[in-house]
Amino acid sequence: MNSEEELPKENEKIPFSQRPEWADVKPVPQDDGPNPVVPISYTDVFTETMDYFRAVYLADERSPRALQLTSETIKLNPGNYTVWQFRRLVLEAINADLLKELDFVDRIAEGNSKNYQIWHHRRWVAEKLGAASTVRELEFTKKIFSQDAKNYHAWSHRQWVLQAIGGWEDELAYCQKLLEDDIFNNSAWNQRFFAVTRSPLLGGLGAMRESEVTYTVNAIKGNPENESSWRYLRGLYENEAHALIKDPQVALVCLEILTAKKNYVHALSMLLDLLCHGFQPGQEIRDAVCALTSDSGTPDSDFGTMVCTVLELVDPMRANYWMWRRNMVPAQVSQSLAADGLSSLSL
Amino acid sequence: MERRRTTGTKSEEEQWMVEDRVGYLYAFFSSLPPNAQSALLEIRRDNHLQYLTHGLRQLGPSFSVLDANRPWICYWILHSIALLGDSVDAELENNTIEFLRRCQDPDGGYGGGPGQMPHLATTYAAVNSLITLGGHRSLSSINRLKLRTFLLRMKDASGGFRMHDGGEVDVRACYTAISAASVLNILDNDLVQNVGDYILSCRTYEGGIAGEPGSEAHGGYTFCGLAAMILINEVHRLDLPALIDWVVFRQGVEGGFQGRTNKLVDGCYSFWQGGVAAIVQRLQMVVCEQLGLSKASYLECTSGSFHDSETSDISNEEEGNTGISSPVTGTCQIRKEGQDDASYPVTLANIGFDFINSKRPMRPIFSSMHLQQYLLICSQEEAGFRDKPGKSRDHYHTCYCLSGLSICQYCSTADADSPPLPRDVMGPYSNLLEQVHPLYNIVLDRYHEAHEFFSESENTSQCS
């Protein structure tokens, strides 16, 4: 079909008023009123293009030249959702080639990859194309991630493609690669969680948990200051605190990081959560925490309080938070022990 | 500071660069004599006001990319001016009302400019702008009956909202719809229906809230999700201890907040994340209930909170007030009694009002002073505020940096009526900004005027 993409770019520099194919259209100026606020000093090209867009939009003209007009309008302001929405109506009406539409979005996305409208439009096109677009969409997001590995919209788009159209085969391997490049990439961790919990090929969290815990524990050992891996570890036991406190790998990695006495804030924070859920620490963990503080006079029964006190000292940005936690720890600990029928044991 | 490796991953290297820039500014600040330090900590009010008012009068061609966001620009500017304790002159006020009238769609809602489709985000911005202006002419220019029709039209089968006809569904859409409906007193069961389910589906394993189910926890969406859940009286359904733990870790070594784990600090999150941190200070009772703690331990947790000098009676007050004014206790009651439809509208209408009038049983859980330091030294420019050193100012960051600063200044006072202590305001006490209603991000006295206006029967009759 006669796509607008085949028109020479030069054509766009000719004012609409001098283009014979637009001679029948009367431009509609913006109704800004006599004294608008936040008035923008539009360029002449911007004003004229928008005036013609308004004319076509108000006339609801769904034609090839209307599609061409929306292309020019979107190039001037890719954030105009009204233009994008009208473009979708036109695309449907003239039964346009949607693969060419993806080419158009590719070009607009260069330099505008953080714009809501582009991604919403892309989702609309991909949905219509169905399985024919899977590979292209996954590759497109990969290309974005090679520039900006944390692009929020691109990750949402990728998740949508996987769920709505498919293409799960290599997802875990892709997350693995991104994390090898940058273990601090929290978006890649989030995607890993998405794949592990939602991929129809991996068997769900139940089947994956053991190997994921092992992977995460190794990541923690390599960079104990990396919050992403600690949060991921908690996520693997989301809503299953009892399983979390019983996993020896979790307590062991805490012990190892605490013993090393370096970058141990997240380890202490994890230990505190374990205690609040009824975890009973062994002597090694108690000794490791005691070794972090000169305050050796803390009574044994207040181990959770002691952890908070250390956190207040070593994590001053969150001193208020740890103080707040400290006020609640004894009640939480006795509560969880009572729930376990262990209330006779003192912690 | 610990010696670093010279090369790191991309995340590490970007982070180190920001730390260097921020560290340089803090070192420079420390090297100054005391009077120069005080001068640097001062909010440059006149400069900011000039920058803001100029934007209201004229914007350059580069703003064409924001041509579908003009009510937003109005809000960022007007709200910033109001935070600074000032207001626009009668002519600009009049022009703003007239301009926003042209952005209002004949079928309800506001678009990004005259003639554009109505959009939830620009509707929120226009409503907040008109409330910030205040006065009968401004408030009555909003067609609430049609606005409600528009909001209902945007309701998605999932319970969430879509931004515009044919637009995207996300947590931002939920918040902007619920916030606008709540502040205009048109929130009802039809609008609320299942929106809580949608927001819950956007919680992530990290503890924060994402834009869509499965996405990454994010400061902007976490604010939107939390505020919306409070406004619909369903905040007890969120895992608040997990959310609190996530948000406090977003405050970084620079003193400012990041939007997501391992991302860079940005002044705008002073409001999105700082606002979340301040909001949860009023949710202590729900938190304790979620932790399975008894009322006795709740009182134990809260006693000794705040500065001893000012709030020795906090725990008693709380005990005395239980079940009366606190939206939090209201939440518990509703749940126990079941979802009685007849009680719904009554409850919904006053949630925002009760929330701000409830006491804060908790001290701040974040570091207000570190955040204020970041905002005043790293974000503030000669005129306007910026994301971080090396970036340029804009109206958006000016609005949310000032909003965050206000949140910091007031988060240590126990109730809405008492002014902050000088020690809680960094820099001269003249730095004190106006207080905001954190659920709507509207200056408090403008909110109260609107609340009163939209509560009166003659003003609500068009909606019943």
Structure explained in plain terms:
- The complex is a heterodimer of chains A (347) and B (464).
- Chain A has 17 helices and no strands.
- By secondary structure, chain A is mainly alpha-helical.
- Chain A is elongated, with a radius of gyration of 29 Å.
- The N and C termini of chain B lie far apart (63 Å).
- Chain B is globular, with a radius of gyration of 22 Å.
- Helices cover 53% and strands 1% of the residues of chain B.
- Chain B contains 23 helices and 2 strands.
- In chain B, helix 4 packs parallel to helix 21 and helix 6 runs parallel beside helix 9.
- The chains are: A mainly alpha (347), B mainly alpha (464).
- At the A-B interface, helix 1, helix 3, helix 5, helix 7 and helix 9 of A face helix 1, helix 3, helix 4, helix 5 and helix 13 of B.
* Shape, per Cα inertia axes of chain A: elongated
Largest sheet of chain A: none
Give the tally of β-strands of chain B.
2
Structural class of chain A: mainly alpha
Structural class of chain B: mainly alpha
Strand proportion of chain A, as a percent range, falls in under 5%
Largest sheet of chain B: 2 strands, antiparallel
Radius of gyration of CA atoms of chain B, rounded to a whole number: 22 Å
Give the SSE order of chain A as H and E letters.
Answer: HHHHHHHHHHHHHHHHH
Catalytic activity (chain B): L-cysteinyl-[protein] + (2E,6E)-farnesyl diphosphate = S-(2E,6E)-farnesyl-L-cysteinyl-[protein] + diphosphate
Family (chain B): Belongs to the protein prenyltransferase subunit beta family.
EC number (chain B): 2.5.1.58
Keywords (chain B): Metal-binding, Prenyltransferase, Repeat, Transferase, Zinc
Which descriptors would you attach to this protein?
heterodimer, A: elongated, disordered N terminus, B: 464 residues, mainly alpha, two-stranded antiparallel sheet, 23 helices, 53% helix, 1% strand, globular
